[in-house]
Amino acid sequence: MSDFPTRIIEILRGCPSGLTSKDIAKLLGTSPVNLSSRLSKLAAYGIIGKVRGTRAVHGTNAAIYRVHVSRLRPRR
Predict the structure, then answer these.
(1) Buried (b) or exposed (e) across 18-57, using 16+ Cβ within 10 A?
(2) Which of 10, 40, 43, 44 has its CA 20 to 30 A from that of 52?
(3) Cβ neighbours of residue 36 under 8 Å, at least 6 residues apart?
(4) Mean pLDDT of the 68-75 span
(5) E strands present in the chain
């Protein structure tokens, strides 16, 4: 499970419009509660961004996580 941060970043790189914790958890095969602290730490370190918004898919107001634009460049 130690590679969760890397996997979260890779997932978010593939979805520039962002995802909710529920979406990310589903893709990782875990629960949103299990991801909460990891997402909070990544956001606190400035690796990902967190905004409040409404996703058309869910139609509910939730935190949406995105990789910062500067981090979207491909790895070398």
Answers:
(1) bbbbbbbbeebeeeeeebeebbeebbeeeebbbeeeebee
(2) 10
(3) 21
(4) 57
(5) 48-54, 61-67
Answer for the pair 8, 28: CB distance below 8 angstroms, yes or no: yes
d(CA 32, CA 35): 5
In this structure, what token pair is assigned to residue 60? Answer: 């509910």
Are the C-beta atoms of residues 28 and 7 closer than 8 Å to each other? Answer: yes
Q: Which domains, and CATH codes, for the chain?
A: 4-71 (1.10.10.10)
pLDDT of res. 69: 64
Decide: 18 and 65 in contact? Cβ < 8 Å: yes
Give me the phi and psi of 23, to 5 degrees please. Answer: -65, -45
